[in-house]
Amino acid sequence: MSTWFKKPGDKVAVDEMICELETDKVTVEVPSPVAGTLLEIIATEGQTVAPNALLAQIAQGDSADSNEMRPTTISGAKLNEGQSDMSGKAVDVMVPTLGESVTEATVATWFKKVGDQVAQDEMLCELETDKVSVEVPSPVAGVLAEILAPEGATIDAKAKLAIITEGAAGAVSAPAAAPAAAAAAPAAAAPADAGRSDVEDAPSAKKAMAEAGISRDAVTGSGRDGRAMKEDVARATAAPAAAPAASVAPTPAVAPRAPSSAADAAREERVKMTRLRATIARRLKDAQNTAAMLTTYNEVDMKAIMDLRNEYKDAFEKKHKVKLGFMSFFVKACNHALKEVPEVNAEIDGGDIIYKNYVNMGVAVGTPNGLVVPVVRDADQLSFADIEKQIGELGARARDGKLTMNDMQGGTFTISNGGVYGSLMSSPILNPPQSGILGMHKIQDRPVVVGGQIVIRPMMYLALSYDHRIVDGKGAVTFLVRVKEALEDPRRLLMDL
Question: Are 250 and 215 in contact (CB under 8 A)?
């Protein structure tokens, strides 16, 4: 709302201008639909309203005191023929299903702004939950009439995100205003930049700037009042680097912890943790505080698997259309060991122990946003090829941020491969409520004794972290020895030995 020309109690004539609205394109005057008395102003000056919002009520008739007068509502349903036709049905955009254990989410990025045309199933915004990022598609084709949950807002799992006017036409700039806007752009650039300190950039843009390591001065905001959006950061990152702006460092965020010196403060950067990262931190600490966690180690000679893989990898890929990796051997070996030591595949629930007569194998995957653990369901029933295909698909979806809640839930045991990053040995942390996690590590040639002779073999350290409340030391060592035996002699898997 920009200006009200009338106040409650004033007489108004038919088509008399009673208020003025400002949009991001044009200024629109709102006429009175009837003659009468302005009873109530619903939308006050300075308030942001949707195209279908109620602006005021007018009592039709000669006197505002008459009991026979019929109140007439005034809305901004149709702002301007050149702006948008918002006369369609209003459709709510709700938070999609997030999963049984997820009760809230954070609005990360809006891809559309109010007044934009949207197609059915076109992505409107992105939500961040404790586990995954979720894209929200438009339920209908029309115009985005109102955004109810702005970027950075924490919302309930059943919240309303926006309102779409179904079938409405999208915003179109008035032709007459285009030349004036183009002429005014250079003159307006300086004041906009000058007042940019009062404009809050999109949280997604701040995050992208922090990840890209670029300053706010290098980004030209395309949002309202020069607000930086995520796509602006992408453009700035892709563009050739501009000449360095002297030695001016970005102003550090205000922090509770004071830096050791002014020089250090100029080189520090404070970025809010994403919901995923915060959840990872909380869950890992909870695992340490709750479980009686212990780790046992062993090492495995990988020569037999490497020879078998080299012999059959081409035929395997030709038949199954997927590469034969090491992970399927480890999943098979763990399935074999879990049958003998079922407590490693169990969990504690209050005063009960729940034994799982199936194996849903969690496979830890590193992503740009943090570690996630998608689940290969019924892994004990799958072939080598099925395991490789599912792990490949889940890994690709994890890196692209396309995992669903169903992909992340229900794991009974986890394998984490730190070897892909070069880790020689580590102690993995449990993924609650699971009672065991196997850590794989780097394959490294080492001298070992075989048959009384010192030979060079490709060796890998294995680590099993387990919950000592449910798994005894004997069970943990037995599990790890069975995994070692199956990997060093894969024929044991065929013979179920």
Answer: yes
